[in-house]
Amino acid sequence: MTAMLTPRKCALILAGYVLLSCAVLVTAPFFGSEPLAFDNVVDALFSHRPHVDADIFFYHRIPRVLLAFLVGGSLAVAGSALQVVLRNPLAEPFILGVAGGGAVGAVIAISVPGLLIRLGPFSSVQLLSLLGCILCICGIYRLASRPVGISMTSILLAGVTINILCGAAILLVRYLVSPHLLVAMDRWMMGGLDVIGYRELSALLPLLLPGLALLFIQGPALNLLAFGEDMATGHGVNVASVQKQILAGTGLATAAAVSLAGPIGFVGLIIPHAVRRLSGVDHRVVLPASFCLGGAFLTVCDLVARTVVAPTEMPVGIITAIIGGPIFLRILLKGRRRE
């Protein structure tokens, strides 16, 4: 049986992760290609006098750090839940094919100039990417549905297949568009957190909040599902209902993240493993701890991406791929040795 933590120990462990997150959130905005003077930021805050350092801090750095934290945390929580439900240590949100659908929607919006419009806090790239994500989730759910519930094997196969089909569609669009649009497409495909102001962040919340809520409430059920569906059923868990809620929550959270930040890989893979190694396998802790650590991880990756090649910046997806690729291979080789 999963080692259950006492409420006091859960609180202490989570407090450590929260402190780490707060430390990253507070310090990250002060670093970047343009050095900021702390005194100028504080003076502008309390005196209400405009200053360029304060403008950069409040309208560029903080929104970007918050976006990185929300996206990284969401992908990590989704990965934690999927690895239990799919019983696959290599599972992560993109295995559902959601990123592929989002990418198709985004490249269509970028490739057709007439579609590049903005509606309030939403852009057409974000809206079509979101539509692509939702269509993929619905398609996968339909393909995996069985009279007795949802087939986890079918979900994996459907996700991989849809990813391949989406890849083919993206190649077709890339072949048809003019060369100068390829730069914008490639930039989006590498992942990016470049936002100005807080309007884009507000567009993230309508899908992100219900998605995370569906995942966070499943901690106790995931502790039982980790030992198999029969064990969970024997303890009164409605396995089919939990699976549906996990898939819905994962889809909503991933769709929200991908539609705004692009396909950023490996966060949902490596963070859950790190959390389980650091603080055990009790998912009442793993889920919120993954959110904190995933958010802090992507924030630091973005900090590296916007400073290592300053004054320009690198897409954050490159940083996560450089870190996550070797870890993916290590987990894969470890699984083979166990077999």
Write the layout of secondary structure elements.
Layout: H1 7-27, H2 38-47, H3 52-85, H4 98-111, E1 118-119, E2 122-123, H5 124-144, E3 145-146, E4 149-150, H6 152-176, H7 179-189, H8 199-216, H9 219-225, H10 229-234, H11 239-261, H12 267-279, H13 283-305, H14 316-338
Antiparallel strand pairs: 1-2, 3-4
- Would you count the extended β strands for me? 4
Strand content: under 5%
The average pLDDT is: 84
Structural shape: globular
Give the biggest beta sheet. 2 strands, antiparallel
Number of helices: 14
Spatial order of the strands forming the largest sheet: 1-2
Low-confidence parts lasting 5 or more residues at pLDDT below 50? none
Please write the string of helix (H) and strand (E) elements. HHHHEEHEEHHHHHHHHH
User: What's the end-to-end separation, in Å?
Assistant: 22 Å
Helix content: over 70%
Rg computed from alpha carbons, rounded to a whole number of angstroms:
20 Å
Alpha-beta classification: mainly alpha
Write structural notes for this entry.
This protein is mainly α. Helix content is 73%, strand content 2%. It has helices at 7-27, 38-47, 52-85, 98-111, 124-144, 152-176, 179-189, 199-216, 219-225, 229-234, 239-261, 267-279, 283-305, 316-338, and strands at residues 118-119, 122-123, 145-146, 149-150. The strands form two sheets. It has a two-stranded antiparallel sheet with strand order 1-2. A hairpin with a 2-residue loop joins β1 (118-119) and β2 (122-123). α1 packs parallel to α13, α3 packs antiparallel against α11 (239-261) and α9 crosses α13 (283-305). The two termini are 22 Å apart.
